[in-house]
Write a structure and sequence with these properties.
alpha/beta, Uracil-DNA Glycosylase, subunit E, 2 domains, six-stranded mixed beta sheet, binds uracil, single chain
């Protein structure tokens, strides 16, 4: 009897005996073995993996496949593992691995997108978009996933926080009031958002009631942004507001401490400015935001991006 058949028999038997299925209830394991996920068992009723493993010889094999392996190998109960997962929601932003690097030389270049043609970047992003995402609970409440918009081969990637209500409705980032202000600000420094930038957010789904993104959501969603940046491989990144700055730079500083400085993310120069929504709420931020945007334009100039933008526009 091969392992697949044995596993299926085990699941059937657990169901028939109305015994809780602990280890095999893990979705990823069920997928690995292509077995229909057995009926959900209340977490509280689940015995520990240790107890279960004494009853089922097949568990040893499966245990290796269950993630996180360390949790089961340490003999923690599934309840413990679940609690651990639930506690992810409380992770402080400072727990996001530091990604800021002041020295470009110390970093391997994020070269994945550098060698890609426009068509390759477009296709890679399309594939990523169509893979969709339901990794966190926001997938249930969203109307549309807001992947990003603009030029897939843009020299500038702009990262905001999370889609608002209007963005959720349209599936396009920065189309509400803050987005309209952003479009005007970009135009003021001669950046056409559709041609010169690719705009996206740290979170691709709207947090209900416009609440702040939770740390666990940021941690879950960040790999998608990372991949987008890898594919586009922009010359520079503009980070709008604290959430984007913290997520990308792994830096828990205030905007006032980060603005006007050039950071790097995987060798790509980044600057942080106040989020346009903050400008709508507090006019005092308008002047520093404008100063910072001009500095970002100077950075593009110094990187030779601005010249190339003008050439493209001819
Ligand atoms: N605010 C953001 O951070 N992103 C959007 O897409 C819209 C508003």
């Amino acid at each position: 009897m091969n392992i697949k058949t044995l596993f299926a028999a085990y699941v059937r038997q657990q169901k028939q005996l109305q015994l809780p299925d602990v280890v095999f209830g893990d979705v990823s394991v069920c997928r690995v073995f292509s077995v229909k996920k057995p009926g959900a068992v209340p977490v509280k009723a689940r015995p520990s993996v240790r107890q279960e493993s004494a009853e089922a010889p097949a568990i040893k094999t499966v245990k290796k496949t269950v993630a996180p392996a360390a949790a089961t190998e340490n003999g923690q109960s599934v309840t413990d593992s679940r609690n651990k997962l639930a506690s992810l929601r409380k992770i402080d932003r400072s727990e996001i691995a530091p990604r800021v690097r002041r020295s470009a030389a110390a970093q391997p270049a994020a070269a994945a997108g550098a060698a890609l043609s426009f068509e390759q970047k477009r296709d890679a992003l399309k594939k990523l978009f169509f893979s969709g995402c339901s990794l966190c609970h926001l997938a249930q409440s969203r109307k549309k996933m807001v992947f990003g918009s603009g030029n897939v081969d843009a020299p500038v990637v702009i990262v905001g926080e999370a889609p608002g209500e209007e963005e959720d409705r349209q599936g396009i980032p920065f189309v509400g009031p803050a987005g309209q202000l952003l479009t005007q600000m970009l135009a003021a420094v001669k950046l056409d958002r559709a041609k010169d930038t690719f705009i996206t957010n740290v979170l691709k789904c709207h947090p209900p009631a416009n609440r702040n993104p939770e740390s666990a959501e940021i941690v879950t969603c960040f790999p998608l942004l990372k991949k987008q940046i890898e594919i586009i491989h922009p010359k520079a990144i503009l980070l709008l507001g604290r959430i984007a700055a913290h997520a990308v730079l792994g830096n828990a500083g205030s905007i006032s401490s980060m603005r006007s400085k050039v950071f790097t993310y995987n060798t790509i120069p980044c600057m942080v400015i106040y989020h346009p929504a903050a400008l709508l709420h507090n006019v005092a931020y308008k002047r520093p935001a404008w100063e910072d945007l001009k500095k970002f334009k100077e950075l593009l100039d110094s990187l030779g991006v601005y010249g190339s933008l003008q050439q493209q526009q001819k």
